[in-house]
Amino acid sequence: MQNFQNLRFSDAHQRDCARVVSSLLKADGQSRASLAAALELTSMTTSRIIADLLDNGFVTEDVAEKRGRGRPGTLVRLNAQRIGFTVIKMTSYLVEGALLDLQGNIIVSQTKRLSASADNQQMTGFLRQMILELQASQPAMMVHVGTTILVAGIVDVKKRVWLITSRWPQVRDFNLAEALNPVTPFVCLFRQLDIELDVHFKAETAPVNTAALLHWGWGIGLAYCSHNVASIAHQGPFGEIGHWRFDTLQDRPCGCGNRGCLETAVALPVLLSQLGLDDLINQGQEQDIGGYLQDVSLAEHQDMQLAIRLVARAMGNMCRILFPERVYLTGPFTSNKAVFTQLCSQFQAEGLVGALKLPDVVMVQTENQDILQSAIRPLIESALGNLPAIAAGEL
């Protein structure tokens, strides 16, 4: 599960403790003998590791079901509630927060609305308060290791800086690591699109080498991965095709400061207003709006026709740059069958280059639990590298 070459340990015992915990994360309830064999440890070393993990509350041991003669064996099980993480999803005005244990089980969750006028200072107070409220529901022995923030917009993942977002236009160059340092030991920042792409790419039954995910909703965003690593996105800002500029839209100002951006014609708030469906903006998350749009007549509306043509052209241009083998499409408009069918048809009519063909478009929805479990993976790695500090209450 974890790449232990990326983790630093003061000695072999700490590393092996982390390896045992990681093994139990893959398959909980293992015997000492099976752990020793799987990790190539001696029985004496395994016993010393288990004793340490038991003393510090990271694992428990219980009697296995008796089979045949002799004394029943024991099984080592993970105490998942010894370590906790928070994940906050900031992809709409309704911000979702959850406290999870080491196995990704949700301990508690909450949803709060954050005004579109919020600036960096107000965002800082809002996030700190949400994290503290989630931490207040921790089980007695749980140690909070860190927080993952999932956002939409332009981000610098390495520096953990949220550069710009259309949801909260007053939030600019927001350093989440600095803002949240007082309430959480470790902070990860990702675009939710990258997390969703990771989920679908790993779930492929027919593996591909490259894939792209395009989200058509509040904004228009792109995620891309190659060989199971979203490497481009992790180098810094990436994928804001919503701000590609089109001459046909040059009279439309965009919140980013330019004119003619794709989002000025195809973004969710713009189209809902043009379609006379303004009230849906306050209905909740994008998936809730998508459920309503599923049965609404949209595809023949003049503004929707323009939006479909522009999104199809943007997707075609994206494929001429990245040449993905698979394209996933998400967002509330994809739930409308007529819109999705027309979009796919116009996308294929774009053509690629020469005899090369455009990839098929796969409409996907990402389960919330899958997003959360993928979001805490780097936090789990941090926890495994800091088991002694967690045990000592020093994290």
UniProtKB/TrEMBL annotation:
<dbReference type="InterPro" id="IPR000600">
    <property type="entry name" value="ROK"/>
</dbReference>
<dbReference type="Pfam" id="PF00480">
    <property type="entry name" value="ROK"/>
</dbReference>
<dbReference type="InterPro" id="IPR036390">
    <property type="entry name" value="WH_DNA-bd_sf"/>
</dbReference>
<comment type="similarity">
    <text>Belongs to the ROK (NagC/XylR) family.</text>
</comment>
<protein>
    <submittedName>
        <fullName>ROK family protein</fullName>
    </submittedName>
</protein>
<dbReference type="InterPro" id="IPR043129">
    <property type="entry name" value="ATPase_NBD"/>
</dbReference>
<dbReference type="InterPro" id="IPR036388">
    <property type="entry name" value="WH-like_DNA-bd_sf"/>
</dbReference>
